[in-house]
UniProtKB/TrEMBL annotation:
It comes from the Eukaryota. This is Sulfotransferase. InterPro entries: Gal/GlcNAc/GalNAc_ST, P-loop_NTPase. The chain crosses the membrane at residues 7-27. Signal peptide: none annotated. SUPFAM superfamilies: P-loop containing nucleoside triphosphate hydrolases (SSF52540). GO terms for molecular function: N-acetylglucosamine 6-O-sulfotransferase activity. PANTHER family: CARBOHYDRATE SULFOTRANSFERASE (PTHR10704), LD35051P-RELATED (PTHR10704:SF44).
């Protein structure tokens, strides 16, 4: 090729790239790139350091934080574990009109950023290439996200997290997803952010449930911000383990190892939580899923009151529907129990393998006295539901009753 041909080729290439990328970032291509190729992310990274980004930032100026008069009064974090009734408990808050609810804010960090070693990218601060072997670095990113949500400060939240499909599991975050559906690309995401921020600032309570946080870390949030309140939700480890197996979350061969780690984590959280209750009176609430499921309305009222909220009539009806089922007409019951919840809370006793009960009773013996669960040493006692598998809530210190 001659020099002239080379020159033309370069110009044509540059033109095609700029047209393609230009369409992507302005969101006019009509194609949703949920996972753009790596090269595009790299170009996208230029958003905050080249000259063009200056003009983009002028078009989408820095989001102001909530005003003093228009900011949530309570920042509620529900700390819990996989298959422990957390969707049900979180839904209680999501259904309240005064709540801005975020479902699993750290899902994208675990599933996208850490697992596939992506770089965390932000609108107006430098990207972070997280060293996935460095726990401190991951926790720093996570704390930024949790804090970003609780404070309605979305510029602190990385783009992958903002674009996480789990956003559809909250009524107000789902509206953001809808807006993004009409405003494609990363610019679309930022075009939709002010709306998300307004809806967060206007809420009386920001609430979020997470299975990816510890009580120790939640206490740090509480120490730094008097508006932060924490609900620690626990469930009978035997029910949780059976459910995890049933949903393929744990391999049959590694059940015992999994159980040891799980119960160690719950025990630490329970100990930390109990000590912290004197340090932060009225800001920590501990509840067992079984108690909530057995007395849905009474516990729902107490949980809401903890966050400064009253149950609405609509919520009362929704709660009745999802806990007294099965109800096939109930459109809002998707992902929720839609069953007789007091029956459902103990149905594990009918299906669980008796050797598993023995193993869990042994490996979780440190958890039981702290949360009022009772070992079931005999096969006949596991299946006989007249024999209690847990103490009455009023007899368990520090638990909601
Ligand atoms: C960026 O803008 C500044 C000021 O407008 C200018 O001096 C500089 O040459 C520009 N840089 C590039 C790479 O275009
Ligand atoms: C881990 O990350 C933290 C926070 O980003 C950093 O301060 C620290 O130096 C890192 N440690 C190592 C061993 O890279
Ligand atoms: C739900 O189950 C409980 C416990 O098995 C039972 O006492 C109750 O009558 C059931 N409620 C309904 C509405 O079926
Ligand atoms: C279940 O336990 C109750 C209370 O101890 C007992 O009266 C009853 O006979 C037991 N039922 C069976 C089937 O063993």
């Amino acid at each position: 090729m001659t020099t002239r041909q080379n020159g033309i080729a370069v110009i044509v290439c540059a033109f095609l790239i700029s047209v393609f990328f230009g369409l992507y970032i302005t969101g006019n291509s009509g194609t949703a790139f949920s996972k753009p190729p790596l090269a595009m992310w790299d170009v996208r990274d230029g958003l905050h350091n080249d000259n063009e980004s200056t003009s983009w930032r002028e078009r989408f100026p820095h989001l102001p934080t909530c005003s003093k008069t228009d900011a949530p009064e309570v920042k509620l974090l529900i700390v819990t574990y996989m298959r422990s009734g957390s969707t049900f408990t979180g839904d209680l808050f999501d259904q309240h009109p005064d709540v801005f609810y975020v479902y699993e804010p750290l899902h994208a960090v675990e599933k996208s950023i850490v697992m596939t070693r992506q770089t965390a990218r932000f609108w107006d601060k430098p990207s972070v290439k997280v060293d996935t072997a460095n726990k401190t670095a991951i926790e720093k990113l996570e704390d930024g996200i949790v804090g970003g949500y609780l404070n309605c400060n979305f510029q602190n939240i990385d783009i992958t997290t903002l674009e996480d499909p789990f956003m559809k599991f909250g009524q107000k975050t789902e509206q953001f997803g809808r807006c993004r559906g009409q405003n494609k690309g990363v610019i679309g995401t930022f075009r939709c952010l002010p709306g998300l921020q307004r809806s967060c600032c206007r809420a009386k309570v920001v609430a979020s449930k997470t299975i990816r946080y510890t009580m120790t870390r939640a206490l740090t949030l509480m120490a730094n911000d008097a508006k932060v309140k924490v609900i620690h939700l626990v469930r009978d480890p035997r029910a949780t383990m059976l459910s995890r197996e049933k949903y393929g979350k744990v391999d049959r061969r590694s059940v015992e190892k999994h159980c040891v780690q799980f119960c160690q984590a719950v025990r630490t959280d329970l100990q930390i939580g109990r000590e912290a209750m004197t340090r932060f009176p009225d800001r920590i609430l501990r509840v067992r899923y079984e108690d909530f499921a057995s007395h849905p309305t009474r516990f729902a009222e107490m949980l809401l009151r903890f966050a400064g909220l009253e149950m609405t009539a609509k919520q009362r009806e929704h709660l009745r529907q999802i806990t007294s089922g099965p109800n096939h007409q109930c459109a809002t019951c998707i992902r929720l129990l839609n069953t007789n919840s007091s029956y459902n809370a103990f149905s594990w006793r009918r299906g669980i393998n008796l050797d598993d009960v023995k193993m869990i009773d042994k490996q979780c013996e440190g958890v039981y006295p702290l949360a009022g669960y009772l070992p079931l040493p005999l096969a006949s006692s596991v299946r006989n539901l007249s024999l209690p598998s847990l103490m009455e809530p009023a007899q368990v210190p520090g638990f909601l009753s």
